[in-house]
Structure to design on (240 residues):
């Protein structure tokens, strides 16, 4: 359980405390001689490096819409932070890499929740690879102990926000892991029924991770025969 009750003065008004939920069944994926876990919570855990990789959380998006007079339940973003906490407690990462769009647009009241959450995990290094929605001033992130960059290289991987176009993928460059697209895969039944699942998409030189945030959409990708695609179900990952 994520216990916030020991710091009642830090809890913003309306903040809901959730019971921790055990993660579902991860998919073990050995790729480029690295052991990766594809998680049904739409995140990736790199076992050798003890790194949790998360794309497109979009915290603050609910507050952005509520500020504009659109009634969106605040509970969505609190669930995202609660799930991140559960993953940290379960997998014990030494580092989290956010692949951009951690906070959606300008500062709003949801920022207080993010800072409270960050304060709970001071020993975990958190790196934000900046995305197009990360427009808050750098010093605000730095004061909250987020490290900032536009790309991050580690081992055989290069972590960025936006996927590179095919013409910019070089055989000699590191393998790209990105977000931004919110990838999905459409499944069709024998009738007219169809279902679109969030997915992990691994191409020859580049992977795209699903959007972590609940208040995000999905974009169906065109896949080549050589691509590896993993659909995200409620409690498991399926290879498609």
């Amino acid at each position: 359980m994520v216990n916030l009750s020991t710091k009642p003065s830090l809890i913003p008004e309306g903040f809901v405390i959730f019971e921790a939920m055990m993660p579902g069944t991860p998919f073990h994926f050995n790729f480029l001689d690295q052991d990766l876990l594809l998680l049904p919570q739409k995140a990736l855990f790199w076992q050798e490096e003890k790194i949790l990789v998360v794309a497109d959380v979009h915290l603050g998006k609910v507050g952005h819409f509520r500020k504009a007079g659109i009634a969106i339940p605040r509970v969505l973003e609190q669930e995202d932070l609660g799930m991140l906490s559960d993953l940290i407690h379960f997998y014990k990462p030494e580092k989290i890499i956010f692949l951009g769009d951690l906070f959606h647009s300008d500062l709003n009241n949801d920022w207080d929740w993010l800072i409270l959450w960050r304060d709970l995990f001071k020993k975990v290094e958190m790196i934000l690879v900046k995305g197009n929605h990360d427009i808050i001033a750098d010093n605000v992130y730095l004061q909250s102990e987020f490290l900032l960059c536009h790309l991050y290289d580690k081992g055989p991987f290069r972590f960025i926000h936006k996927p590179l176009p095919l013409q910019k993928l070089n055989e000699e460059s590191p393998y790209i892991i990105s977000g931004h697209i919110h990838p999905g895969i459409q499944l069709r039944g024998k009738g007219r029924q169809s279902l679109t699942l969030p997915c992990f998409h691994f191409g020859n030189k580049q992977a795209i991770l699903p959007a972590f945030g609940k208040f995000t959409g999905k974009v169906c990708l065109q896949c080549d025969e050589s691509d590896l695609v993993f659909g995200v179900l409620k409690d498991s990952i399926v290879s498609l």
Summary: The radius of gyration is 18 Å.
